[in-house]
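Field log, afternoon session.

UNIT: design team B
ACTIVITY: writing a sequence onto a fixed backbone
BACKBONE:
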C-alpha cells in the first residue's frame, strides 16, 4: 500500500497542478463562462469580415461567421457555430447559443437590443414567408432588451419596407415558437413551446400562452390575457380574458394572472361584475351586445374603474374596421 501511495505522489506535484489549472482555464474560455473581460477573444476558426464592428469583451467561438455589415456591442458571446449575417446590430451583452442564426443578406436590417439570449439553432431576422414580399424590398426586425428566445425559434422580418416586425422587452419565448412577419409583440410576455403567431398579429403586454397554440393573422391579443394549450385563436382576445378550446372561446377572466400582476381585490371584483353584465346577462329581455357595453360604461361605479374602461375599449376596438371581432362566448360560462 505504501508503495502505491509513493507511486501516486508525483501526480500531485506543483508543476502538474499549475498545468491542470491552465488546461482548466483554457476549457473555460472555450465554453464561454460568464466573464466580461475587457479584451475580446476570437477563435482562430471563426470567419469575420474585416468591415464588421466588434465591441470590447466580445467572445467569438469556433466556426462562427460574422458578416460585413454586422455590429456587435460590448461583451457579446457567440457560442460555437453561431452566425450573424446582413445588416445586423446586436446590443451589449447578447449571447448567441450554438447553431443560432441572426440576420440575412437582404435590404433592410435586424436590430437587437441589450442582454438578449438567442437559443440553440434559433433563426432570427431572416426573410419572411409571405408571397407578397418582393425581392429587393427592405424588410426590418426590431427586438428590445432582456429577451430570452429559446431553441429552434424562428422570427421573421417584415414583409414590406413600410412595416417592421417588433418585439419589446423582457419576453420569454420558449422553444420552437414562430413569430411571423409584421407581428408586434409588447413587453413581459411568456410564450410556451410551439406558440405560433401568423403575420400581423399584435400581442400586448403580460400575455401568457400555454403550449401548442396558433394565432390567426391580424388577430390582437390584449394585455394580461391567457391562451389555453392547443387553442386555435381566429379572433381577438380582449384584455384580461382567458380563452381555450380547439376553436378558442372565452372562458372568463384570467383571474390568477391578474392576481399575480398586482391587481387589487376591488379591481378584480369590478372586472368580474362587468364581465357578467356583458357576457352573461340575466335579464328576462336580453339586450344586444352593444347595449350591454353601454350599460356597463354608464354604471355609476363600474364606469369609474380604469381597468373596466380599458376592458370595454379593448372589446370595442376588436369590432372596428378591418378587425376580426372577439372570440366566441357562451352565456353559461362563469368567471
Amino acid at each position: 500500500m505504501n508503495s502505491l501511495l509513493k507511486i501516486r505522489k508525483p501526480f500531485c506535484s506543483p508543476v502538474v497542478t499549475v498545468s491542470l489549472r491552465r488546461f482548466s482555464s483554457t476549457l473555460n474560455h472555450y465554453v464561454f463562462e460568464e466573464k466580461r473581460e475587457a479584451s475580446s477573444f476570437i477563435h482562430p476558426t471563426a470567419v469575420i469580415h474585416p468591415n464588421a464592428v466588434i465591441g470590447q469583451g466580445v467572445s467569438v467561438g469556433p466556426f462562427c461567421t460574422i458578416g460585413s455589415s454586422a455590429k456587435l456591442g460590448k461583451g457579446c458571446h457567440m457560442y460555437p457555430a453561431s452566425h450573424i449575417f446582413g445588416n445586423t446590430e446586436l446590443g451589449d451583452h447578447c449571447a448567441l447559443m450554438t447553431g443560432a442564426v441572426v440576420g440575412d443578406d437582404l435590404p433592410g436590417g435586424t436590430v437587437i437590443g441589450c442582454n438578449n439570449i438567442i437559443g440553440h439553432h434559433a433563426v432570427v431576422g431572416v426573410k419572411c414567408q409571405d408571397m407578397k414580399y418582393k425581392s429587393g424590398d427592405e424588410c426590418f426586425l426590431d427586438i428590445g432588451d432582456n429577451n430570452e428566445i429559446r431553441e429552434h425559434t424562428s422570427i421573421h422580418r417584415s414583409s414590406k419596407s413600410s412595416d417592421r416586425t417588433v418585439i419589446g422587452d423582457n419576453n420569454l419565448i420558449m422553444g420552437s415558437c414562430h413569430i411571423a412577419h409584421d407581428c408586434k409583440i409588447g413587453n413581459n410576455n411568456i410564450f410556451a413551446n410551439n406558440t405560433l403567431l401568423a403575420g400581423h398579429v399584435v400581442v400586448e403586454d403580460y400575455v401568457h400562452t400555454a403550449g401548442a397554440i396558433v394565432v390567426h393573422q391580424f388577430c390582437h391579443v390584449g394585455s394580461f390575457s391567457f391562451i389555453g394549450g392547443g387553442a386555435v385563436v381566429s379572433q381577438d382576445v380582449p384584455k384580461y380574458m382567458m380563452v381555450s378550446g380547439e376553436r378558442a372561446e372565452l372562458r372568463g377572466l384570467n383571474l390568477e394572472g391578474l392576481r399575480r400582476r398586482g391587481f387589487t381585490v376591488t379591481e378584480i371584483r369590478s372586472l368580474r361584475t362587468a364581465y357578467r353584465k356583458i357576457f352573461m346577462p340575466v335579464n328576462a329581455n336580453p339586450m344586444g351586445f352593444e347595449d350591454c357595453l353601454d350599460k356597463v360604461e354608464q354604471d355609476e361605479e363600474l364606469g369609474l374603474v380604469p381597468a373596466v374602461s380599458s376592458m370595454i375599449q379593448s372589446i370595442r376596438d376588436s369590432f372596428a374596421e378591418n378587425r376580426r371581432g372577439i372570440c366566441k362566448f357562451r352565456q353559461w360560462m362563469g368567471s
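LOG NOTE: The first strand starts at residue 41 and ends at 42.
NEXT ACTIVITY: expression trials, pending approval
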